[in-house]
Specification:
Layout: H1 7-11, E1 27-28, H2 40-49, H3 63-73, E2 80-83, H4 86-97, E3 107-108, H5 116-124, E4 128-129, E5 151-154, H6 166-175, E6 187-190, H7 200-206, E7 218-223, E8 236-240, H8 242-252, H9 262-273, H10 275-298, E9 302-303, E10 310-314, H11 320-329, E11 332-333, E12 335-336, E13 345-349, H12 353-365
Parallel strand pairs: 1-11, 3-4, 5-6, 6-7
Antiparallel strand pairs: 2-8, 7-8, 9-10, 10-13, 12-13
Helix pairs in contact: 2-9, 3-9, 4-5, 4-8, 10-12
Bound molecules: 4'-deoxy-4'-aminopyridoxal-5'-phosphate.
């Protein structure tokens, strides 16, 4: 604690990101990055943009990028917001749509979920409640059908990887749409991992983007960090009703008019246009996920059913802490959340087949 910090800074409880080791000694399965490179077309677009035009500010409205996202996701450009990674988009969304202060109605998010949500809630002084997950770690959507200050959850959930069926997502959005005297609140569905839920058609059906026209209070949040293999570029989006997008712009323009730089803009546009490449690497990740999951279950591990690019895994006898240490000493980094109910699980990002074979070898040797 520094005496220079104001009370707000003193009271913050910041998010702790997964380790980014500075050498390449580790097989890195700890931050859900994509093991395959970004599309070569994306790299080329970024190189082409790296010229004297960097003298100029980027387009604050991100028009060309929003058009490319709109085309890819079958929505209108006015229904798209772009930010510096989806973490920033989420921070803006909490600020724009959830009321702060002691007398505000609490927002709802699951007891086990993305650990940045409570951090944003603290940052903006938003009260919250955390309905527990079911015994099988699924989210009970009925817990979210009550008046509240808003709802946020990832679909698939993190770190479980488990998917809420689209009909249940719609039921939550419908309840809070402000009709028939029921709730009136924004429902944020964080779809960071949705592209791993199946093939392109299945993803389109599963994604809440499909339902934004029906539900003006439904905001979906997307990222290029996972399926587009661009965690280093920092690009995230929100897709929803125009009024919600305008709300996000108001917050952004009270903070930083240019969160998306020229290089990110060019890379993002190229990524949106190269659907074929990304569908191919997503298929590879999903195939590896299914293979590794089956092999672990065969060895007696518990593995939750994942629709994401990671597996949530429990060793048959070792504690989460012990299993984490064994993997680390074998040069494999994974993520351990030392929290109630999940302390014996590890979150393992799906890597290349060779990386996952190395992981499985350690798992098999340490039964
Ligand atoms: N949402 C969820 C559920 C995540 O796991 C992550 C990645 N840590 C993010 C959002 C943020 O991703 P990014 O800021 O890289 O877009």
């Amino acid at each position: 604690m520094s005496t220079f910090w104001n009370s707000r800074t003193r009271e913050l409880s910041p998010y702790i990101p997964g380790e980014q080791p500075r050498n390449e000694r580790y097989i890195k399965l700890n931050t859900n990055e994509n093991p395959y490179p970004p599309s070569p077309v994306v790299i080329e677009a970024i190189k082409q943009a790296a010229d004297e035009r960097l003298r100029l500010y980027p387009d604050p409205s991100c028009a060309a990028l929003r058009e490319a996202v709109a085309e890819r996701r079958h929505v209108k450009p006015e229904q798209v917001f772009a930010g510096n990674g989806s973490d920033e988009v989420l921070a803006f969304a909490f600020a724009a749509f959830f009321e702060g202060g002691r007398s505000a109605a609490p927002i709802l998010f699951p007891s086990i979920t993305y650990s940045f949500y409570p951090v944003y809630a603290h940052l903006w002084g938003i009260p919250y409640e955390r309905p527990p997950l079911q015994e099988d770690f699924s989210i009970t959507h009925n817990d979210y059908l009550k008046p509240c200050g808003g709802v946020v959850f990832p679909n698939p959930n993190a770190p479980t990887g488990m998917m809420m069926p689209p009909d249940n997502v719609r039921a939550v959005a419908r309840f809070h749409a402000g009709q028939n005297g029921r709730g009136h609140a924004v429902v944020i569905v964080d779809e960071a991992y949705i592209d791993f839920a199946g093939d392109a058609d299945a993803v389109r059906q599963a994604s809440a983007v499909h339902y934004i026209e029906e539900h003006p209070n439904l905001l979906t949040v997307h990222t290029l960090s996972k399926s587009a293999s661009l965690a280093g570029l920092r690009l995230g989006f929100a897709i929803g009703n125009e009024e919600l997008i305008d709300g996000l712009c108001r917050v952004r323009d009270s903070f930083n008019s240019y969160p998306v730089d020229r290089l990110a803009m060019s890379g993002g546009i190229a990524a949106m246009k190269d659907a074929a490449y990304y569908e191919a690497i997503t298929r590879a990740v999903v195939a590896t996920r299914e293979r590794v999951s089956a092999a672990l279950i065969e060895m007696g591990y518990t593995v939750l059913p994942s629709s994401a690019n990671f597996l949530f895994v429990r060793h048959p006898v070792m504690s989460g802490g012990e299993f984490f240490a064994v993997l680390r000493s074998a040069g494999i980094l994974v993520r351990h959340f030392n929290k109630e109910r999940i302390a014996d699980f590890l979150r393992v990002t799906v890597g290349t087949d060779a990386e996952m074979d190395a992981f499985l070898t350690v798992c098999g040797a340490r039964l």
